Amino acid sequence: MTTNEQCGCVSSARTPAAAARNAKETGARPSCLRGKGVTKVFGMGGKQTLAVDHVDFDFHEGELVSIVGESGSGKTTLSKLLLGLLTPTEGEIYYQDQLRDISSGKKKREYWKGIQAIFQDPFSSFNVFNKIDTVLLDCIHMKGGRHLPREKKVELMSEACSFVNLKYAELTNKYPFELSGGQMQRLMIARVFLLKPKILLADEPTSMIDACSRATILDMLMNLRDETGMTIIFITHDIGLSYYISDQVYIMEHGKIVEHGTADEVILTPKAAYTQRLINDVPKIYEPWDLSTVKF
Fold first, then answer.
1. Confidence band (pLDDT; 50, 70, 90) for 286?
2. Is residue 78 part of a domain?
3. Nearest 5°: phi and psi at 248?
């Protein structure tokens, strides 16, 4: 059986856009986020946990990158390090080819203008006391539009909602918890549309919504990337999805990057045993599910 057939949860034929992007030379794109020996240790003394273990990475402008690993592999901790929500124990992170400096609140807010996130759980991603208008207005203000006329702000919010197939007139004066999970995920993408960061970090953005909504969310993210040229970093356990959408794929196991390269290199000709196991563990509807590699 070919590796294409093994990734049975998605079409074995990659999207034309993804294939075309992969055909480009990565080195021709400027680096936007780079790490060298990035490490994160939790705890002290004899009760330390090595969550991220001396990883190196280099993400380029306009790329769609997937960081793939099972639960506990360190991928979410790495995402928090990239966002500046955690401080590395060791290593260096470079943003726009400059050593990242988020040592003060002001510098951190400036950094966050260029890197934003969509999180796994839409229900815990919003302040329940803030109306949707406030959520969107905060984005406009963060981009320097605090003194714009009210009419212009409404126009910008309507445009952002329209991009994700929502109607601003139906959302105004509502709270996020009044929306469905899929609508809340789309609202988070509307925030990103207003902010237009250089880098978007999407941590399992489709894992809590149904298959139909999942396809819609992914399509919106791809369109957003194509419109703005932003770099999108997917944090996911779904290796089939990573192959379908990604330019570059990084595989994480026990806090280490065990393999990385183009999607075709990593998925079609995997070298690491862990990558091969992830591919073999994808359920296939036309053959018995092999549980021999599952650790109970």
1. low
2. no
3. -125, 145
Domain containing residue 170: 127-196
Domain membership of residue 111 (yes or no) is no
Average pLDDT over every residue of 281-293: 66
Other beta carbons within 10 Å of 207: 12
Structural domain includes residue 7: no
Q: Where is pLDDT greater, at 194 or 46? A: 194
Task: Return the percentage of the chain with pLDDT > 70, whole number.
Answer: 84
- Adjacency order of strands within the sheet including 98-99: 49-60, 31-42, 90-95, 98-99
Per the structure, the count of domains in the chain is: 1
Cα 132 to Cα 75, 156, 178, 202: the distances in Å are: 30, 14, 10, 21
Nearest partner of 204 among 226, 237, 163, 158, judged by Cα = 237
String of DSSP letters for the chain: --HHHH-TTS-SSPPHHHHHHHHS-GGGSPEEEEEEEEEEEES-TT--EEEEEEEEEEEETT-EEEEE--TTSSHHHHHHHHHTSS--SEEEEEETTEE----SHHHHHHHHTTEEEE-S-GGGSS-TTS-HHHHHHHHHHHTT-TTS-HHHHHHHHHHHHHHTT--HHHHTT--GGGS-HHHHHHHHHHHHHHH--SEEEEESTTTTS-HHHHHHHHHHHHHHHHHH--EEEEEES-HHHHHHH-SEEEEEETTEEEEEEEHIIIIIS--SHHHHHHHHTS--TTS----TT---
Residue 160 falls inside a structural domain: yes
Q: How confident is the model at residue 164 (pLDDT cuts 50, 70, 90)?
A: confident
129, pLDDT greater than 80: yes
Mean residue pLDDT of the chain comes to 84
**What confidence category does residue 58 fall into, taking pLDDT thresholds of 50, 70 and 90?**
very high
Task: Please give the Cα distance from 229 to 87 (Å, whole number).
Answer: 28
